[in-house]
Amino acid sequence: MVLLSKIKWLPVVLLMAIAGCNKMDVFEKTVSFPMHQWSSANKPKFTFTVTDTLTRYNVFIVLRHTDAYHYNNIWLNITTIPPGDTAQTTKANLKLGDNQQWLGSSLDDVIEHRIRINQYPLQLKAGDNIFILQQIMREDPLPEIMNAGVRVEKAK
Questions:
Q1: CA angle 72, 142, 107 (to 5 degrees)
Q2: 132, 150 in Cβ contact below 8 A?
Q3: What's the half-sphere exposure (Cβ side, CA atoms, 13 Å) at 145?
Q4: Residue 108 lies in a domain
Q5: What is the mean pLDDT of the segment spanning 104-128?
Q6: Three-class SS of residue 151?
Q7: What is the number of other CB atoms lying within 10 angstroms of the CB of residue 132?
Q8: Helix (H) or strand (E) holding 21
Q9: Is the pLDDT of residue 5 over 50?
């Protein structure tokens, strides 16, 4: 009988643990690409609103591709527009794998990557911070890319 009463609390404890883990996630949004092809003309835009200017943040690029993706990397233009400031574009070569394996987590033939793009935690300006992604690979449209997005979380 004691064991049965403890089992009743298990779902509640699990739910609280999951909810507690999500407190670190501040923002994550991805967009899907039609027919799993990312055209260089398709530049997804993500807006993250900062209210806490004392907190430092880590910024990640989120990518999902199929196992049939042809390359071990992806080149992106990452444009950031802080509130009341001018746009800055950085060219980034993100490593996705090597000739042996993918670096992301996989489920069947879908591989997901969360790649941190800042070396040190950032202090973002209050207001709407905008991130724009553009693939700049030689192959256009780029096949086998399912989603791309941005994740911003509080630094630990």
A1: 55
A2: no
A3: 30
A4: yes
A5: 95
A6: strand
A7: 17
A8: helix 2-21
A9: no
Amino acid at 33: F
Parallel, antiparallel or unpaired: strands 142-143 and 25-32? unpaired
Please state the domain count of the chain. Answer: 1
d(CA 74, CA 94) in angstroms, rounded, equals 5
By residue range, what is the domain housing residue 144? 27-154
Decide if 58 is inside a domain. Answer: yes
AA identity, residue 90: T
The amino acid at residue 103 is: L
SS3 state of residue 124: coil
Instruction: Identify the CATH number of the domain in which residue 56 sits.
Output: 2.60.120
141 preceded by a cis bond (ω within 30 of 0): yes
Q: Which residues contact 6 (CB under 8 A, 6 or more apart)?
A: none
What pLDDT does residue 25 have?
67
Q: Which region holds residue 22: left if phi is over 0, alpha if psi is between -120 and 50, else beta?
A: alpha
pLDDT tens across 124-133, in order? 999 999 999 9
Are the beta carbons of 55 and 126 closer than 8 angstroms?
A: no
Summarize pLDDT for 23-81 with one digit per residue, the tens: 546 899 999 999 999 999 999 999 999 998 899 999 999 999 999 999 999 999 999 99
User: What's the mean pLDDT in 8-26?
Assistant: 49
